[in-house]
Every structure is written in C-alpha cells, then in structure tokens.
C-alpha cells in the first residue's frame, strides 16, 4: 500500500486512495481473503479495528510523501486517529457493500466528497 500511495501528491488523495486500495486489494490477499470467504469476518474486523492495526496504518500514512502538517495533522496521535477513521471506513465498505456495486471511480468520488474536505481536498 505504501508504494501505491506514494504516487499521490496530497493528503486528501492519499487518504481517499488508501480506502479504495484496501477495499479492492484486501479480499484478494491470500490469507485475509480466506478469512473473509470462510465467514470469519468478526475475527478479521476485531483485528483490523485494533490499536496495533491503527498504529500500522499511521506508520503507512506517515511514510507517504505528503505534508500532513499542512492539513492540520500534526501529531502522531492525530495521524493514528486519521488511520483509525480510514480503516473503519474501509471495514464498512468491505463488510457492508452498497446495494449498487461501486466501481473504483464511484468509490473514490464518494470517499473524496466526505473525507477530502477534512484534509484540504
């Protein structure tokens, strides 16, 4: 994910793309996809919505070459909070998909509409 997000120049775009990327790639990850296919979504959700997972998400975001401080994300705690919101949003899309399937551009547009303004986008 870090490599993928490195190509985005703004905090808003990196945040939006992190959700889209996770929604599209996690189900195809060999071990994670098996958990989801086997109906072990509760186990998956608990692990993804945990402090260590949020810390990992914050580390990934921190390594993306965008100016987080320019959009008001100035502390590790704030970056971890942003990671938590993005991960919870990703979980929501993954566990409870829209009735009408959204393609990547539609998902990007939806997430950008609501996350983008918070990050100056």
Q: What does it look like?
A:
The chain contains seven helices and no strands. The protein has helices at 2-5, 11-25, 30-37, 41-48, 51-62, 76-95, 104-115. The model has no long low-confidence stretch (mean pLDDT 85). It is mostly helical.
Provide a quick synopsis of the model.
It is built from seven helices and no strands. The longest helix has 20 residues. The relative contact order is 0.20.
Tell me the helix content. Answer: 55-70%
What amount of the residues lies in strands? under 5%
Number of strands: 0
Summarize the main sheet.
none
Q: What's the pLDDT, averaged over the residues?
A: 85
Structural class: mainly alpha
- C-alpha end-to-end distance: 21 Å
SSE diagram, text form:
Blueprint: H1 2-5, H2 11-25, H3 30-37, H4 41-48, H5 51-62, H6 76-95, H7 104-115
Helix pairs in contact: 2-6, 2-7, 5-6
Main attributes?
mainly alpha; globular; 121 residues
């Amino acid at each position: 994910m870090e490599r993928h997000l490195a190509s985005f120049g703004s905090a808003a775009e990196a945040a939006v793309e992190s959700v889209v990327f996770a929604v599209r790639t996690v189900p195809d990850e060999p071990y994670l996809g098996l958990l989801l296919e086997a109906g072990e979504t509760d186990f998956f959700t608990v692990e993804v919505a945990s402090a260590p997972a949020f810390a990992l998400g914050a580390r990934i975001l921190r390594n993306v070459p965008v100016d987080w401080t320019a959009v008001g994300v100035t502390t590790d705690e704030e970056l971890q909070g942003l990671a938590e919101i993005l991960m919870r949003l990703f979980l929501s899309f993954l566990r409870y998909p829209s009735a009408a399937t959204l393609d990547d551009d539609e998902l990007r547009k939806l997430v950008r509409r609501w996350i983008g303004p918070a990050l100056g986008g």
